[in-house]
Design goal:
heterodimer, A: 254 residues, mainly alpha, two-stranded antiparallel sheet, 13 helices, B: 50 residues, 38% helix
């Protein structure tokens, strides 16, 4: 089976993850926090992350920003500098490392623009085998969350009752409603990681993952995690269908 | 590159499993923090356990 497809999806993921890397890492990476140690990596982040978004030396930029993110996430003790210690920061950083194994600069990039200007070949298609890593990492995340939900504490709706209390809701929803939501999200938690890998259910599963996590984003204090998950879910989309959809959207062949 | 991708795939599964089990790993555990756990974030974060 050929793994050579349009690179537009991974290129859009490069831009989206680059912007999310700014949202997650830029403030805590400011030099003022790293005057004693780690000043060079912090400055390097500010130097390289714009290149990632612009698509200049795309794969190297993705690898460097990802590695810097892993360094920042791993060296920050839990409970301190929350944006860095958050597991979402780790997911985001590793996703950038995996993205470096894809032709993420093949489209919508300075690399492509420069190659075309110099008359060099700038194919938009490349080997997308590396996107399997993005798919796998998202699947592992969903399975771990599903495992965590497999407890009576969750299934009884108690976790939601505690959440309502923690969020200072004046009127908590009735118990049967909380338990209903718990059962629904428990079932979805186990079904979605499987459905994402089945061609017949893939598109619906991507929509469900994005829809579910976008509902979570404004309700719970999860930071950029929901948006990272939505970007990763995009790696399950058919790259050729996305390519054609963008062509239709632009009204031309890019 | 293909060998690297294969090795990374094995590592994502193994490393995530280790992290989930609380063993040292370079990968995030993805578990929601519980406020009862040592090192849980404080301040504005409201842990929901969801």
């Amino acid at each position: 089976v050929s793994t050579v497809h349009s690179s537009r999806v991974v290129s859009l993921q490069r831009i989206a993850l680059g912007l999310l890397a700014w949202a997650q890492f830029a403030a805590p990476m400011r030099a003022v926090h790293h005057l004693d140690e780690g000043l060079i990596p912090a400055l390097l982040f500010y130097l390289v992350s714009p290149l990632l978004v612009l698509g200049l030396f795309s794969r190297t930029s993705a690898l460097l920003v990802g590695a810097l993110g892993v360094w920042a996430w791993k060296t920050t003790p839990p409970g301190q500098a929350l944006p860095l210690a958050d597991p979402a920061a780790g997911l985001l950083a590793w996703s950038l490392v995996w993205l470096a194994l894809t032709p993420c600069g093949g489209s919508f990039s300075w690399d492509r623009w420069r190659a075309r200007r110099e008359g060099q070949p700038a194919p938009e298609r490349g080997d997308l085998l590396g996107t399997r890593l993005l798919q796998l990492h998202l699947t592992v995340l969903l399975l771990v969350r599903a495992l965590d939900r497999s407890s009576w504490h969750y299934l009884s709706g108690e976790a939601f009752r505690q959440a309502a209390h923690a969020l200072h809701l004046e009127t908590a929803p009735p118990g049967w409603a909380l338990q209903g939501v718990a059962l629904l999200t428990f079932a979805a938690g186990w079904m979605l990681p499987v459905a994402l890998w089945l061609p017949a259910t893939r598109l619906a599963a991507v929509a469900a993952v994005c829809g579910g996590w976008l509902i979570v984003y404004p309700v719970l204090p999860v930071g950029v995690e929901s948006l990272v998950v939505c970007v990763l879910a995009g790696s399950f989309l058919d790259p050729e269908q996305v390519h054609r959809a963008i062509d239709r959207l632009l009204g031309r062949s890019y | 590159v293909r060998a690297l991708i294969g090795a990374a795939a094995v590592w994502i599964v193994a490393g995530s499993l280790l992290a989930y089990l609380g063993q040292p790993s370079l990968l995030p555990s993805f578990r929601r923090w519980s406020t009862a756990e040592p090192g849980a974030p404080t301040g504005e974060l409201v842990d929901t356990g969801l």
